[in-house]
Amino acid sequence: MLDFVKKLLFVKQMKFENGNIKILGENFILIDAKTLTELLKEAKDCKQIYLSTKKIGKSITEALKTNLKSRNIELQELMKNIFEMAGWGEIEIMKINYDAKIAFFNLKKSSISTSFGKSSYPVDHLCRGFLAGGSSAIMRKDLDCIETNCLACGDKFCRFIVAETNYLKNNFYEFYKRQVDINADTK
Ligand SMILES: [Zn+2]
Description:
four-stranded antiparallel sheet; three-stranded antiparallel sheet; single chain; Muramoyl-pentapeptide Carboxypeptidase, domain 2
């Protein structure tokens, strides 16, 4: 991780100036995880948080894709490095299938889950959004993301599945309905 930061500083893609932090041309803010978890606890609608983060994740990934002209595998690695550098946790890409447009991620030591405390339901809606948006940009298809396991629920790590709407709806209906589309009535 430190190597990645050193590299960014060396190529002047990470700057601290005029009260701003700029990484790869985007503004970043250091924020206590507690602030975000309090906002999450207050929010009634996890879907809206998810959709907003998905939009941002998609636009950041698309901007990086255009600016860096990276291949998918490099972009994937870059997104992982940015995600971990920003302190969200240790993300592992378990499986990715570009043809089927499906990806599985495990997130160890999620900062949000740790800070959130115990919950009866997965809480990493911001990570879900980033993964959905980032993956949509990389795989050039509108994809969604559900969280099936969560540290906050007592699981060993958080697990995310990114796929097309129909796949999630057919295979993980309850998660899909609660996390992506509360109006989904039929399997
Ligand atoms: Zn989680």
